[in-house]
Amino acid sequence: MLGPVLLAAARSDTVRRLVSAAPGTRQVVARFVPGERLDAALVAASQLLAEGLEVTFDHLGEDVTDTASALRSRDACLALAEALAGEGLGTRAEISVKLSAFGQALPGGHDLALRHVLPVVEAAAAAGTTVTLDMEDHTTTDSTLAILTELRERFPDTGAVVQSYLYRTEKDCQTLSTAGARVRLVKGAYREPAAVAFQHRAEVDRAYVRCLRILLAGDGYPMVATHDPRLIAVTQALAARLGRRPGSYEFQMLYGIRPVEQRRLAAEGHRMRVYLPYGTDWYGYFMRRLAERPANLAFFARSLAGRR
Prior knowledge:
This protein is α/β, with parallel strands linked by helices. Helix content is 51%, strand content 14%. Strands 1-2-3-4-5-6-7-8 form an eight-stranded parallel beta barrel, surrounded by seven helices. The radius of gyration is 18 Å and the shape is globular.
């Protein structure tokens, strides 16, 4: 199975150096990451918005090892919020953040991450938009949800992400699915042990549907993040059965993956939000995209071969 190997490689500095140095890597990465600078991301976003799509920006970065890097992540997100305010995009463009980029893994990381992310959430609110806290590996889940609880006391629109491959997630969905709560449901893209997570795709998919049913039946605002046509169809069927109309939930997909399907859903009247990453720290994100689908890895290999 290549998936676990690629997920392990996502945390390897040696493999990072090899992939980054490979001829043509940056051109291939551009399929999933439109640029390293904010201005490139804003250009990509404007094109998506013109097609009736919505976006959530992610300034790439995670697992920072010092406070200075955490501050740079904070400042990059503050610059993003300022740019969104200048564009007047409102909730058509929101912000996604990883708390490990704000120092969550450092000594005293819980308080440090909260202190660094709070001004970003404040700036997003001032810009008329919101922030969603991405979920990372299972060791960060409790801290992330605790920070979410604190942020929602002042900013109830702050979003959460839950991962269906974790055994705990059905219970988390029940807790989070309250009035007005924004919850993004994903399958999960980190290498997790069998003690805490389902290991087989069919089990993860079944758990996704169970979590989806809880969220759609609840009082919150589900954000259904999937590229799987079966799960998209299940979502539509469940929403119809539960009296959910388009606009009371949304679909989300990654930039560069199934763009035709993204436009189709938007044309049908669904809210369709594209996860739009940018920044220099693209390696971990890129490797997880390769791990998720063999077709992505084949695309990468063909592209590199074609540039030799």
